[in-house]
Amino acid sequence: MNRKRITAKKLGISVAAVFMIFGSTSAFAQQQVSLQEAIKQALQNKAEAKKATLEIKRAELKITEARAGALPQISATAGLTYNPIIQESLLEFGGERIRAQLGQPWTSSAVVTLNQAIFDQRVFTGLKAAKSTREFYVLNAQLSNEQIIENVATAYYQVFVQEENLKTLNVSYTNTEKVRNVIKSLVDNGLAKGIDLDRTNVQLTNISANRQQLINAVELSKNSLKFYMGVPIEKQIELEEKSIEPRPELIAGNVNLDERIEVRVLNKNRELLQYNLKATEAYLYPTVGLQANYGWAGQGPKFPLSNGLRNGVLWSDYSAIGLNVNIPIFTGGATKSKIQQAEIDIQSLDVDIQETQLSLSLEYKNAITNMENSIITIENMKGNVELAEKVQKDTQSNYQYGLATLTEVLDSENALTDAKQNYTTSLLDYKQAEIKLIKAKGELNTLQNP
């Protein structure tokens, strides 16, 4: 008896342990995510966000590179030369001509040279342009983040709506199954026709097929969401249980389209093109630079690095300081042509800015219109669901009392399912319109905050 109790106790502990293990595995394998968490993970994981961050770092290195042009440039050189044959020269002294070798078999030198730009308009313009380039990439990173947020939000609500449709079909299947069971009981007792049972089974099969299609659609939508989040596709995720509530207040107010990231990126790009124009014009300006060097050289008939004056090798130092001025006088019109090309680049970008502003204005107006229509549609579909639920309940009640046919019962159930799915679809249309409006107002970053 005691042995059986001990065995049962061990079995109970083992079963409990198994359930704990499976429960723990399931908890770790599946992650429940909110929209804010999905956006957070996307901004951390997506390649676009990572590359945008790397471009900002590249721009910072460009600033360092440009700054180096205004700093002293110091270099050192060393050399060792052996002249097996020394060229002779003819010298005249007092009417006599003498053949003499000017040079030594061995020469060695070490020189340190310093160059400092005193005035170079291209260097100063390049430094300003490098700082502006960093600001450009910061804005471009914000634009990339907005695109990521839009994709994640759209995919998130796509999953939400598909799951709501699946819930609707599950309820429809349960209701139809209850009707089938009632009819089966009636058929078994000879109070109903077999064809009614067959029609109900056909209805259940159709609902089951549609439900399987929705299960597949939910899985595909989740895969898209996981892709936009930048997480492994095999990772299991579940959405937080939340409802969609229309926000008519988003329609109110005005928007400054010049503050849209798209326009700010183009304006910053225009600033860079202006710096490019100034850098090109700088080729017309003179440049002034300072050069200084200091060297140590040795020459003689023997290897200089290990010999001195006692062995005929002379070592001496030397130095020079110079000021270089370069004044461009005539370049054949090349510089003027480059300047005109730079001006055309700016004019072309101005056209793009105007076109973008017009496009953003159209996007904003359309977003407001879609929001207004979506809110109206949601109210209509919501009322339609309430009416379909009333008709379905009344029809089922009448059928039980013989006041309605089976066709009317199935039709009312189909009508309720269609009404709920239409309502859910209208919620998705609304959310898509809401995301477009938030984007049009330049407020997509607000979706990161709960």
TrEMBL record:
It is found in: Cell outer membrane. Residues 32-69 form a coiled coil. It comes from the Bacteria. Residues 1-29 form the signal peptide. Keywords: Cell outer membrane, Coiled coil, Membrane, Signal, Transmembrane, Transmembrane beta strand, Transport. InterPro entries: OMP_efflux, TolC-like. One of its GO terms (molecular function) is efflux transmembrane transporter activity. One of its GO terms (cellular component) is efflux pump complex. Gene3D superfamilies: Outer membrane efflux proteins (OEP). PANTHER family: OUTER MEMBRANE PROTEIN TOLC (PTHR30026). Belongs to the outer membrane factor (OMF) (TC 1.B.17) family. This is Transporter. It comes from Epilithonimonas lactis. The lineage of its organism: Bacteria, Pseudomonadati, Bacteroidota, Flavobacteriia, Flavobacteriales.
